[in-house]
Amino acid sequence: MKNRRIYIAGIILAMFVASVGTSACGNKGNAGSGQKQTSEQKQITNESKEDKKTGSTGDSNKTENNTGSTNSATSTIASNTTGNTGSTTSTASNTEVKGDASEELDYANMTEDDLVKDLINKESLTEEEVLWLDSTFRYVEFDKFLNLPYCISYKAFDLLNDKGVKYEFSEKNIETLLKSKYPQLRVRAMEHMFSFFGLSDEHKEMVKELVKTETEPAVIKEAIAILGNSGNDPEVGAFLIASAKHEDPRIRETAASWIGSYWNDKMEGAVEAELELMKDEDIKVADAAYRNCNNMTDKRILEALKEALNDDKKYELHGSCMDSVIYMWLNYPSHEKYNKEAYKISMDYYKKKPRTKDVPYWIAVSHLDKVNEDKFDAWKKKAKYYKPKEIVEVMTDIVKDKNADYLARCCAIDVIAVHGGKKAFKDLKPIIKKLKDEKADSIRDAYKSKEKKFK
């Protein structure tokens, strides 16, 4: 899902830049996301890329009505546009798309070209034509991650974009989709709510109303992503906390990813919920909690991260743990946070012996290989605890340690180059040359591949 939304954000960003003639930084790409760049840059890098979707948006300008001969006027969006509980019937009259058995599609045997054959040569689509094409998502089964997979319906919108056909996702259509009896279309409605500028108050209220009765896991998961930055709203906060206890692990995982949002700093019960999610029996849930707690300042969070890093049996979680710990003291790319205790926890983890193929976890080493040169020097003046010499020494020790994982040793070379500069990198060459373990040649090759940068 993240890939799709980042793609959407890119399109919106391009439109924004074109309209105002200035550049802007995109945000994380989650529906309803409005987190500050300090946390968004990190999460873009670390969110799991489990979804292959690449949704699209149309032209934001109003389009003229066409009189094409598609079946858009009679598509079966929701038979009676019933609500998710089946107890409420929409009275949206003109927005409602009536059910008709003759309009059922042989979707499984169709292609994206089939879906747009009556639309592709138009200059712009009518509101009803867009609604018809959106309605085809009702045939798509959610994948094991509770996402809509990249399907011919997404591809159909891509074809329209490639051809330059103009269309918009109107508020009227969003409301209709959100009231559909098909969970796929309720999810689709929320996909359209995503904006480069964040979630509108109107859409927020619509989703808040939806989740009061929603029972479909995929829809709940999407709603968490939409409302994820609004946890300071008591109703939303309660929804996120409840979602953290949901029986479906993918819902708990999504809740774990959002409860620790920068914008949920006043959310009641957030810390306690995230701490419980760290203990979840599903490793993806626990991983999400460790990875997304970096904005939480409660001391219990850092203590939980330290405890996990001291448990070698949890090595698969160490990458996410160190991601958060390092973010707390280094805060790449913004370099605006300072945390002496978090720095010490990082160094203690890297220094821990005996090293094994699992500890230090190679991803945990890689999280230290980037700084933002534009802001790093100013940050160093305030971060008195930061000792580049200490970092170079421990990373050099990892490179030399034949018991450490090969990838961890290679990543350590990058860290030395970043925090030690040209001199430290060159001083490493004779050390690597003397290596005699079975991975020595591979380590030397890794060093050689980076050598050009310092010539």
Automatic annotation (TrEMBL):
Residues 65-95 have a biased composition (Low complexity). Residues 27-100 are annotated as: Disordered. PROSITE patterns: PROKAR_LIPOPROTEIN. Keywords: Signal. Residues 1-24 form the signal peptide. Pfam families: HEAT_2. InterPro entries: ARM-like (IPR011989), ARM-type_fold (IPR016024). Coiled coil: none annotated. Residues 33-46, 55-64 have a biased composition (Polar residues). This is PBS lyase HEAT-like repeat protein.
